[in-house]
Amino acid sequence: RGRVAGLYGADGSLLSSPNDTDQLFSLSLTAVDDFNRKLTVSPDGAKKFTVRPVEGGVRFIYEGYAEGVNKVICQVLARKGDDAVRWRIAVDVAKGWALVDTSFPRMILTGAIGGKSEDDAIVTGDCKSGIFKNPMAKPKSAWPMILWQPGSMAAQFGFYYDGDRGFYSGFEDAKGDAIRLMYTNWKDSGLFC
Q1: Do residues 65 and 45 lie in contact, with contact meaning Cβ atoms separated by under 8 Å?
Q2: Listed residue (81, 8, 64, 67) closest to 37, CA to CA
Q3: CA 183, CA 193: separation in Å to the nearest integer?
Q4: In what order do the strands lie in the sheet with 108-110?
Q5: What is the pLDDT of residue 130?
Q6: What pairs with residue 108 in β-bridges?
Q7: Angle at CA 99, nearest 5°, toward 180 and 178?
Q8: Buried-most residue among 23, 66, 82, 133 (CB within 10 A)?
């Protein structure tokens, strides 16, 4: 119903966790007339779920939420000749609610790209260096790694890779919305992104 079950590099190597998955999205909403009334929406709350093929990908449609959201549409495209997998989300917010935060796509990456973590690194557009070598060896106090724009994120991207393969996430946002890029240790065996 909306989880990234497997993510593979061009060479066929597994980039996602072989054991864990997470909800594809998580939405935080607040009631317009009562800011103390908050709501979290995820794929599991939809009463109706539809999958539709689109050119080069698939579209997931979630409807029938009890409150807060009328419809959520997620789309993933992996077009021939395009090295990037492109993710999109659209949210139709119900009257009386305000969308405060969107976490999408949510995925758990392998804790050791290519089988060992010592040569792995996270490289981000952080204005204070943004290079974190062997991230899985970092102490719990170093997690989560969060970058904000506006804020410490000077460029809208993040890499998690070893010398041969990896995972790139970037944002294409012409409107200038607030953006958060977060990595955190997942059960000492994976990296939540």
Answers
A1: yes
A2: 67
A3: 5
A4: 108-110, 190-192, 179-186, 145-149
A5: 79
A6: 192
A7: 25
A8: 23
All residue ranges of the chain with pLDDT < 70 are: 150-154, 172-176
Residue type, 122: I
Rg, Å, the chain Cα set: 17
* C-alpha atoms less than 13 angstroms from C-alpha of 50 in its C-beta half-sphere: 10
Tokens of 42: 């995820």
Residue 12: how many CB atoms within 10 A of its CB? 7
Q: Which residues pair with 29 in a beta bridge?
A: 39, 99
Angle at 89 (CA atoms; ends 86, 93), nearest 5 degrees: 175
What is the model's pTM?
0.82
pLDDT digits (tens, 9 = 90+) for 80-125: 888 788 899 999 999 999 999 998 888 888 888 888 888 888 888 7
How many other C-beta atoms lie within 10 A of the C-beta of residue 192?
18
For the chain, first and last CA: distance in Å? 19
Q: How many helices (H) and strands (E) does the chain have?
A: 0, 15
CB 138 within 8 A of CB 185: yes
- Tokens encoding 4: 């990234």
Regarding beta strands 97-103 and 86-93, do their DSSP bridges make them parallel or antiparallel, or are they unpaired?
unpaired
